[in-house]
Each structure stands twice: as C-alpha cells, then as structure tokens.
Amino acid sequence: MRLSERIIEKMLVICAAIALLGIAVIAVFITKEGWPIISKIGIKAFFLGKDWTPTKGVYGIFPMIIGSIYVTIGALAIGVPIGISCAIYLAEIASPKVSAIIKPGIELLAGIPSVIYGLYGMTVIVPIIRDLFGNQGFSVLAGSIVLGIMILPTIINISKDSIEAVPKEYKEGSLALGSSHWQAIIKVILPSARSGIISSIILGMARAVGETMAVIMITGNSTMIPESILSPVRTLTGNIGIEMGYASGEHQKALFATGIVLFIFIMCLNLLAKLIPKKAGA
Amino acid sequence: MVRGKVKLILCLIVVMTLIMTACSGQSDTVETEKKILINGSTSVQPLIEELASAYKEKHPGAIIDIQSGGSGVGIKSAIEGVVDIGMSSRELKSDEKMLKEFRIATDGIAVILNPENPINDLTIEQLKKIYTGEITNWKEVGGKDATITVVTREEGSGTRGAFTELIGVEEILNSSITQGSTGGVMTAVGSDENAIGYASYGSVKNSANLKIISIDGIPCDEENIYSGAYKISRPFLMVTKEEPTGIAKDFIDFILSDEGQQIVEDNNYLKTNR
Amino acid sequence: MNDIKIITSSRIKERVAFFLLWIFSIFTAIILVLIVSDIIIKGAPHISLDFLLEEPRKMGKEGGVFSVIVSTIYIVVLSIIFAAPIGVAASVYLAEYAKESTMLNIIRFGTEALAGIPSIIYGLFGYSFFVFFLDLKYSILSGALTLTLMILPTIIKTSEEAIKAVPKSYREGSLALGATKLQTIRKIIIPDAIPGILTGLILGIGRVVGESAAVLYTAGSSLGIPDSIFRPGRTLSVHLYTLASEGISIENTYATAVILIALVFIINFSANTLINRIFIARRR
C-alpha cells in the first residue's frame, strides 16, 4: 500500500509537470524551426527590416511589430475604459438583478469563438468604417474595435474580482468619514484594487497581441507601416496566419521566426502580470 | 461509485497510453493502394474535390484526401514524396521540372472591379502601374477621382505568383490589402467601389457583385483564354514524383478522359489546351 | 451652507459618474446582443435538419455540415480523453501534495504561461511537432494532442480550486478513521469536487469547439467524415473560417456560425448550472 501510494504520488507529479514540459517543448520547437533564419539574415535585419518579400528572400518584420503595437494600443484604448467601468459598476453599484443579467452576458462574450468576431467585424464593422471615412475599411481602427470588444471579458472579470477583494472595512471607514460612495470608490477602493486592475490590463493586452483569426479577417494585412488608424495593417499573428498555409522552405521558417517574437512578447507580458504584487491595500 | 470513477480515470489513462504507443508504431494502413493523398493549390482544390467525388461514385472503395496548402506546398510535397499528387496553379520552375506534370485544365486570371466602377478595360501597362503604386487614382486611367484600393493575395499564393509573373510586376505595392483566399479578394472588391483585384476566372465568372474587365482590349472569356489571346492565364497542374501508378494513375486518367474534362467545363474552367 | 453646497455638488458628481458607469456596462451587454442577433438573424433561417445531416458539397457551398460536426465531436472527445486524466491528476498534486517550493512556483508559472500562449503559436507548434516530428500527419490525433496542451491549464485551474474548496473537516475525518491519504483523495475529496472538475472539463470543451488557428495547421481542413483518428478532418470553427474568408456561401457561413453560437450557449449554460449547484451544495 505504501509503495503504491508513493508510485501514484510520483505519477501525479509527472502529470503536474506536463504543462511545464509543454511550455518547454513549445519553446524548443518554435525556436528550432525559426532561429536559423534569424541568424542567417541577422537579428537587426529581421527585427528592423521594413520589407517583407518572402519570394525574394527579404524578411523584415518591423511593420508587423509596429502593426501589433498599434492594434493593441487601439484595443486597450477601447477596452480598458469600458471594461473597468463595467467592473466597478458590477462590483459596487449594480443590484443583484442587473448583475444577474450582465454577468452571464460577459461569460458568453468570452466564450464566442474568435472566428465569429472576425465574421462580424468583416461584415458589419469594416463596411461602417468604409462608409464613414471613405477609405478601404480594413484598418487599424477596425482591428482595434473588434479586439477591444474581445478583451472586455478578461478586463472585467479580473478587475471585478480584485475590486470585490478589497476589505469591506476600507469602504465603510471612508463612508463613515463622510465621503460619498463615489468618493470612496475613487479614493479608497480603486487604489486598493490597483494591482489587480493593472494585471487585468496586461492580460487583456496579451489576448489582443495573440489574437489571430479575427484580426486576419478585418485588418487588410498590408505589409507596410500603417500611416494612420485608417490604414490597413498586418500584425505578427496575422503574418503567420495568412501565409502559413502557403509557405514552404525558408519562407515557412521565417513565419516560425515571427512566432518566436510573438512568443517572447507574450511571455514578457505573462511575467509582468505575475510580478505585480497581488496584495490588496498597501 | 467512487471506485467506479477512479477506475474510469485509470481506464482512460490506459487507453491513452495504448493510443500513444499505437501511433508511434502506426504507419499507413493496409489499404495504401486504395488511398491517395493530394495537397496543393487552393485554386485547384475546388475542382479536384468535384472530380474526386465523381471518381468515388465510380470507385466506391477509393479514399482521396485533399488538402489545400498552396501551390508551393503541393509541389514541394510531391518532390519529397509526402503526397501522391501535388496540385499547382502555376507553371513549374526549372528546378521543379523533374516532376511528372499533367495539365488538367486552363484557367484565366480575371481582373475584377466593383460594378460601380465605370472602367471596363485596362492595359497590362496600366495594371502593372496600379500594382506597383505608380498609379494611385482612378482618374489617371480615365475613371473618377478616387484613390484606388489595391487588393492582392498573400505571398506564396499560386494566383499571386502567376499574376505578378504574367503582368511583369517585380514587387507588389506593400500598402495593398492582402487577402488569404480567392473569396477574400472577391469580398473585398465586391464591397468597395474603388477596389481592384484579381482571381481565378472560374471562381468569379458568375459573381453578380463583381465586374470582369478586358485587358488590352481583349475580353476575359472562355474563347480568348483557351486560344491564348487573353494573356493572363495559367495551367492547372497535377504533379507526381514518378510515373503515377495504381489509384493515382487511375484518377489522373479519369481527369483527362472526356468525362473528367466535361466536369472541368461544368465547373467553369477550361479544358486543357495541351 | 457651504457644507451643503459641497455635499450637493458631490452628490451630482456621483450621479453623473454612476450614470456613466451604467452606460458602459449596458454598452457591454448591447455589444453582445448586437453580435449574437446579427449572426442569428442572418443564419437561423438557413438552418434545417437537412443542413445538420447532409454532407457538405462543393467545398461547403451546398449541402450541410454533417461531416464537420462529426470531426468536431472526434476532436472534442479525444482531447478530453487526453486532457482530463492529466489535468485532474495535476490538480490533485497541486492541491493536496505540493509543498511551497521553487519547483512548485515554476510549475505554477508554467501552467499559467501555457494558458496565455496564443492559439497561432499552438498551431505552429503542433504543425512542427505532432504533424512532422512525430509524423502523425494532418490528423484528428495531431489536432487533439495540440488542443490537449491548450486546454490543460483551464482544467488544472478549475479542478484545483474545486479540490481546495472541499472542507478541511472531510479530510481530517477520513484520516482520523485510518484511511490513507490516497484513499481520502479517491473516496472523499474527488467525489466532492466532481462538479467543479466537470465545470473545468466543460470549459475545456468550449475552448476546443471555438478554436480555429491551432486546429487548421494540425487537423487539416479536408471535408469528409474521418474514419479513424489518423485521418484529417475539419472542425466547425475551421469550416466557418474557410466559408467566411473564401466567401463561398453567405447562407451557409451564417448557418454554421449559428450552430457554433448555439454550442457555446449550451456549454456556458451547463457550466453555470454546475457552478450554481456547487454553491448550493456548499451552503447546505
């Protein structure tokens, strides 16, 4: 009995380590496929090169890095104010009835597959932008709007949890000192929940950076550095997604190399979210 | 009940290990000769799907797996012997000529505009300038004063490869809207009145929300593509590493037979002009 | 007098602020309604029993989605078969055995990081590892193995929380009666945590059903009913992506989207029901 228990315990450890192993294998394989091309054309030429012409062997992903950054900033500009407001409302103000309606809605928003967001963006949002601004419609703006909506659940859920985790005494103390509910929220509750709110933003950012299918369908995928929010744009994920099906040889390796950049991006964001102190108050 | 659940979980683990070991030792199943794997151009795929289903009706046991990885992948897979047949929507390059090639159909690449656009004809030279960014406004080619939305396919696509080669463009304007599929180009052009794009003639022929224009005064239609008068056309190829045998040979023979070529025509492609 | 003024002005401020917060919250709900209703209005009229039971013809331009549904079921079942035992075992270890240590922190970070990796990276990985390195080719199996890694964090996290929520007294009672730790886990803790574990599995299924980027490059996109797990197949999400981006058939695109949304509805609803049941059980 003792022996079998020990064996089973070891098996459990192995299962627990599989996730870690998974991350390691993913990192190894993406790097193995992509690194040779980066070292061949040079780190500087790869990261800062402004031309992406695989048929000629020119691989510069600078426009895509900028593209990812633009679209992500746009998504945050839309998603953060709405998301945090919604989180405050749900955690502090909403009656149980109202939150009973909105909460499942947010879960559903999180569960909708990204292709459906892409379909909606392509058939509704892109034409609206085209009519409003007289451009081609596929643009940084379209990508930002759709991604802004897609990161809402992440921001709302994590922010709401951290607001709800602020000890009741803080709020009561503030109210007892004569401040209004709104003042208590602004001056006491939000500062206490700050770290949770910041990590919600970082994780939302990670989701925006990593989204692929929806982005391909709505951003136009041009390989130039966008001039304005109305220009078409290609993100790192879009670069992989749109060309992966057709690429072969060196071209394919260059897409894996794009994957390395994306992987590093995401790992940095995860690490950042992890490093933010988790305590409420302070 | 609890015991049952633990047993269930243990069973699942066992099943999983079995499957894992099974796959490390798995090779192609016994019926290799009844099964073929095809990969390649997305432009050719719809046609092959049709041909395959007609073929399967005659030969119920046959299994034909069709993947679409693009012409480059199709050719490369055929060279490596990973697939039985590769599909290509462009001519083979000189270093790919060791493959056996079978021309199964001819396809024109139609230049498409939105029906709202008054332009009906462009010269190859104008087309080239539009796709390199030298001409950016429709009024420069006799249209209204509006910026041209250039729509193209992504790098690696056979249609893009054939198009750029045929009109002699070195490098397509990098600000153009890039779509990952024929349908993507059609949607983008169909919904934007200032857009220009290109796609397989067979795919766009019957689209009400698109306008096919003539090039150098020669209309893009069956007759002109077949005769070669319409310049922007390319073959659909099936390529194999060695002289095909078994079901692969049988399938290719079927495609080249009158019956197969009739299906090609029924699907708006032109039979091969070998 | 002055005091009253300050109070009223701050009350007005509060009103305005709360109103704005309310607007934003309602806005979130409205977005959802807009998207879902747009899809349903355009797609529902094209759904019929025939659509569900017919095989796609002409690349999905005509016919239904039967083979696509079959492939989806294949992939869902297979990834759950792989992920459930590993995920539950991992969560048992993390909740019951692991002691605070650097190793544990690393394992936890690995699990969290796995959850944050974009699906396109899973696609690249699955393509180079399962499809080529292990030579599983484009197959249901390659797709399912890739998705297993992807849903593992969800299952581990939800199950771990469920196991941790089992009252301490249960454990102590069982141990006091002379049961070993493993017996306690098997007979007391897991049965009590089952609803939570199931919730994790259901959420995992939701991710599998909705995933497209990771499946496209591992399970392939061929239509036709896969007759074994070594054959390629096309899931609903991949089918929807292909239909939408190829512009093959607007009716079938939206009809497929409606099916996908309906599945997400059902999955979310059952997960919620289970969660509620846990809370009710706890309160008793």
Beta-strand share of residues of chain A: under 5%
Order of helices and strands of chain A: HHEEHHHHHHHHHHH
List unreliable stretches of 5+ residues of chain C: none
What is the CATH T-level topology of the largest domain in chain C?
Answer: MetI-like fold
Within CATH, the superfamily of chain A carries the name MetI-like
- Tell me the domain tally of chain A: 1
Helix content of chain A: over 70%
Which architecture of chain A does the CATH hierarchy give at level 2? Orthogonal Bundle
Class based on secondary structure composition and strand pairing of chain A: mainly alpha
GO molecular function, one term (chain C): phosphate transmembrane transporter activity
Organism (chain C): Lutispora thermophila DSM 19022
Membrane topology (chain C): Multi-pass membrane protein
Pfam family, one (chain C): BPD_transp_1
Give a description of the structure.
Chain A: This is Phosphate ABC transporter membrane protein 1, PhoT family. The complex is a heterotrimer of chains A (282), B (274) and C (284). Chain A is mainly alpha-helical and 282 residues long. Helices cover 77% and strands 1% of the residues of chain A. Chain A has helices at residues 2-41, 43-48, 62-93, 96-111, 114-133, 140-150, 152-164, 168-176, 181-192, 194-210, 213-218, 236-243, 249-275, and strands at 52-53, 58-59. Chain B has two domains: 35-106 and 236-267, 3-Layer(aba) Sandwich (D-Maltodextrin-Binding Protein, domain 2), CATH 3.40.190.10; 108-233, Periplasmic binding protein-like II (D-Maltodextrin-Binding Protein, domain 2, 3-Layer(aba) Sandwich). Helices cover 38% and strands 22% of the residues of chain B. Chain B is built from ten helices and twelve strands. Chain B has helices at 2-24, 45-58, 71-80, 124-132, 158-167, 182-190, 201-204, 222-227, 246-256, 258-266, and strands at residues 35-40, 63-68, 85-88, 100-113, 121-122, 149-153, 177-179, 195-200, 211-212, 214-215, 233-240, 270-271. In chain B, strands 1, 2, 3, 4, 6, 7, 8, 9, 11 and 12 form a ten-stranded mixed beta sheet that branches. In chain B, strands 5-10 form a two-stranded parallel ribbon. In chain B, helix 9 (246-256) packs across helix 10 (258-266). In chain C, helix 3 (66-97) runs antiparallel to helix 8 (181-210). Chain C is globular, with a radius of gyration of 24 Å. The mean pLDDT of chain C is 87. Chains in contact: A-B, A-C, B-C. Chain B binds chain C through residues 1-3, 5-6, 9, 12-13, 15-16, 19, 23-24, 26, 29, 45-46, 49-50, 53, 65-68, 179-184, 186-187, and chain C through 57-59, 81-82, 84-85, 88, 134, 136, 138, 141, 186-187, 190-191, 194, 220-224, 228-232, 245-248.
